[in-house]
Amino acid sequence: MEVKLIDHTGDDAGIVKAARVSTVGRESLESTEKRGLIRYLVREKHLSTLEHNSMTFFIEAPIFVAREFMRHRTMSFNETSGRYKELSDHFYYPPEDRPLVQKGKAADYDLYPGSADQKFTVSIHTKQAYYAAWTAYKNMLDAGIAREVARNVLPVGIYTQFYATTNLRNLLQFLDLRTADDALWEIRYIANEMKQLAEPLFPIAMEAWNEYR
Amino acid sequence: MEVKLIDHTGDDAGIVKAARVSTVGRESLESTEKRGLIRYLVREKHLSTLEHNSMTFFIEAPIFVAREFMRHRTMSFNETSGRYKELSDHFYYPPEDRPLVQKGKAADYDLYPGSADQKFTVSIHTKQAYYAAWTAYKNMLDAGIAREVARNVLPVGIYTQFYATTNLRNLLQFLDLRTADDALWEIRYIANEMKQLAEPLFPIAMEAWNEYR
Amino acid sequence: MEVKLIDHTGDDAGIVKAARVSTVGRESLESTEKRGLIRYLVREKHLSTLEHNSMTFFIEAPIFVAREFMRHRTMSFNETSGRYKELSDHFYYPPEDRPLVQKGKAADYDLYPGSADQKFTVSIHTKQAYYAAWTAYKNMLDAGIAREVARNVLPVGIYTQFYATTNLRNLLQFLDLRTADDALWEIRYIANEMKQLAEPLFPIAMEAWNEYR
Amino acid sequence: MEVKLIDHTGDDAGIVKAARVSTVGRESLESTEKRGLIRYLVREKHLSTLEHNSMTFFIEAPIFVAREFMRHRTMSFNETSGRYKELSDHFYYPPEDRPLVQKGKAADYDLYPGSADQKFTVSIHTKQAYYAAWTAYKNMLDAGIAREVARNVLPVGIYTQFYATTNLRNLLQFLDLRTADDALWEIRYIANEMKQLAEPLFPIAMEAWNEYR
Q1: Are residues C55 and C104 in the same domain?
Q2: Which of C117, C137, C156 lies at the terminal end of a domain, its last residue?
Q3: Which percentage of chain A shows pLDDT scores above 90?
Q4: What is the pLDDT of residues D45-77, one digit of tens each?
Q5: B47 contacts: CB under 8 Å, gap ≥ 6
Q6: Is the pTM of this model over 0.95?
Q7: Which of C10, C25, C162 sits opposite B80 (nearest CB)?
Q8: Which of A89, B168, D106, D112 has the greatest CB tally within 10 Å of its CB?
Q9: CA distance A98 to chain B (A)
Q10: CATH classification at residue C180
């Protein structure tokens, strides 16, 4: 999985400008960053002031992560198309530290690492299923079948690529949900990468959010 | 694939009320449907007047259709979770009339039915890949693996279920894109079902849209 | 000021259906209201489940209230137009219990009733200004001036009418902000009316929100 | 009225990247601007590719313009507050070339310059009404009345200041509506200023939009 920040604009000072227009009007154009004010805005959730900026990320992640990601309706997306592009045989395998076993209720459970046997089980069955899917996909393409039909067999563990553009307000809403303990392990990984990329851009606002969330 | 309308409110008269508030204010509360006005609003794209209503659909479709569907950020969604629910072995196979072969450029191609051989190819490879995926999934679950890990192998052709709520304006935007000739065959099927369900609810507006689109 | 609920759909059971689709898929269609689940969803802020419903309000309020109202970008609006309609001489005067005096900082102050003298001051100056504005407006209209030019002199205290359509999730977000102690007195009045109209429609969800907000 | 571009990011090449991710995936990161592709995207309304960028404008305009502006729900706004700031006596007067007379139906009329008499009528009545409003406002403030009560008398022709942040897709939607012949004269002025500021940032896309709109 990979996250790159490819473009951005705005900074802590822009948050101050947006906030101060309400109290000083046109003079806000001269505003510079003010630590106390930014912390106050984040703490009291005056979040519209965090919208006058932009970050564009390039993300490579399995489809099952992209699916959760694209539920965030305030973001802008463009993604690799299984209709327009022959996909690559690049599949997701849970890394060593990804817990494999769940205990608890359907929507409220804890995760545990899993035994060596369970790790082997995941590894072998995942590989076999991915292999069968890829073989079927390639065979269909070789027989002249349209990509948009052949791809039906591809697993949600195959990698996809997309651009996601958002502002700081909506990024923080995303991070609130997707860095939480009960978020899917894989999207938590992506969210934490995005968080680290955003921190140097808005150091005061991000510090305040970390503290008050 | 299945589409059910499970709830709705609003009608052609509501469109007139919303339009007439701008010209008559509070008197608009008494407005009833006016064919000419509704046709004018649709033709001239005064579309905010189509937003004071609501339709909730229940949809059962493969994940690759849900993926396109959920790119519509103005709609409300809740969907079956592969983390919270053990999925069912219910997979999508292209029906007899689904064209299987594409000719043309990557993002601009035409589709053709395909030969009997090609139909057989799709059928056999799709079945084999689905079977391998399902077997791997069940084996992992039997070994105590978490649903959210085991499901990585499931194909985008597996069925999912979701509720989608929207208003007439956003439905028409959806239908503009998803009933078009170059829309994915499967989402065009879903979109046409939705269109038929919406027509009796807003007969004048839907007729006007059909005519002027 | 006036708020009427003119249309709605959805109920507490719909919230349960939307929540349960994630854990039981298609079976959710049979779901009925479940008090414990709804309270859990509201408390834990699983708010997408509150979106599959709709309420349309007709609101008559001064322009300065409509201005705050229409900052809520998730709602649908249509409003009386000062370009298309000659407006009515219906102006807002602060009622007896509206506090008139502020003490504190620019964006963080408390309000007090004000003396009898201050009440008189508000009453007399407001009346004079409204009268001057209305006279100028009518004189310009009588001289054949376009409504969209003549209306420039009308005060933000003149009444306007609009339809606002939203779902329960976005209504609660509105109520969170607009029934708060530091909300503008007049929009708090409107918000409380809306709250009372919504309570019988979603009794369990509204009770939970009242408790957990 | 004044429009300043105070911040932006993104360019024509970013549109190409966003478009090409669907056909080439990760390779799109290397894309540079391609005139033909951008023109195709704009003409065929593949508009999601225009969302990966941002422009922040500072705008000074009368309240009646801000009211129309803030109906665009895809934009981000922060504005001078009549609650938090004592407003300035800066009012809008129609300039020499602003047509003053309307002929036709309520929502479908043409505008004409107006006679010298009519110009005088507008000028004198507007000045008188503004003066009365300002006097009442100041008198109330002097009597210790809260800004949020005193401002009720201020006209929609008083100037306000706000930041508006949007992306190219939503800017074009704004320009489609607000540079049209039947748009309010004053917002058309603002929209044309924004258009001129955006043209050097996205020369190919803006040229294509001008041609195909």
Answers
A1: no
A2: C156
A3: 97
A4: 999 999 999 999 999 999 999 999 999 999 999
A5: B41, B169, B172
A6: yes
A7: C25
A8: B168
A9: 9
A10: 3.30.1360.170
